[in-house]
Amino acid sequence: MKATYHRYLLNFKRPSGTSRGVLTEKETWFIVLEENGKKGIGECGILRTLSVDDRPDYEEKLRWTCENIHLGKDKLWESLIEFPSIQFGVEMAFLSLVSENPFVLFPSEFTKGNESIGINGLVWMGEESFMKQQIEEKLAQGFSCIKLKIGAIDFQKELDLLRFIRSNFDENTVEIRVDANGAFCENDALDKLNQLAGFKLHSIEQPIAKNHTDTMAELCKITPFPIALDEELIGVFSLEEKNKLLQKIRPQYIILKPSLIGGFKGTKEWIDLAEQLNIGWWITSALESNVGLNAIAQFTFLQNNPMPQGLGTGGLYTNNFDCPLEVENGNLWYRNDTQWQEGIFELL
User: Is residue 88 within 8 Å of residue 44, measured between CB atoms?
Assistant: First the structure.
């Protein structure tokens, strides 16, 4: 078996704002396996400044992985415990290699095109007028669940945006999730949560920065509406550490990004622990290309979670790969009459 790795830069159609700054491009890496004339592909979706494996030796570890590909998927996963995005790329590449179609990793009613996955519509941070325009577009596109990134513009303006939505759509018509990306200060987080609660929100992701577990545990205990952990899960490697974190904080939900938490295996560990503790969860992509998004969507469908998932990021880039994934009326579909980009392996 031969393994190679390739760097690829995804270009945003328009700059996309988060509380950590504005993104114009997204770096990603691919592992390609070749054996007996067959090829498999996996995406190592690193997110610079956020991924725990954003380290100077990242490419060196990719090289090591390709040189030691003979160890196989399971042994490599254990050896790559501090490199969750590479764990995910390896899992994906091995599944791709042994699949009849290298892009159908988990055959199901979803990949047959018979069933879809409900998703939230993502509204990016930016000027008030831009955010309002996005909200109107998402509602017009048939989304019944909208996720707003907050924490980058003036908080009162963000409250005005929520007021705009709620003046037109009540909570039974449109579910609103907000994601603070850890932007609130510990000393005023509860005050902000109380102000947000008036808009009948579904949940808020990561109101304060990670690693303030005492404060986060207290917030989850007294919050007026549900809190979901996101960044808090990054860099928590062992099953014991994962269990300890959830037992201490007791969030209402956790958000699972396979590229950031150890791929399918890492995600499944979090799901099993959460369900034992009566904690809700959903899965989201983390700005991967359509290769990674496709794998995450197929895996997500098999988890049978009826909540809207966070999988609508495929249309963000000018140079993404053509693929069968299509968003329609707030649902993600796999359209078998659409082909994957011709010569995709040669483009890497």
Answer: yes
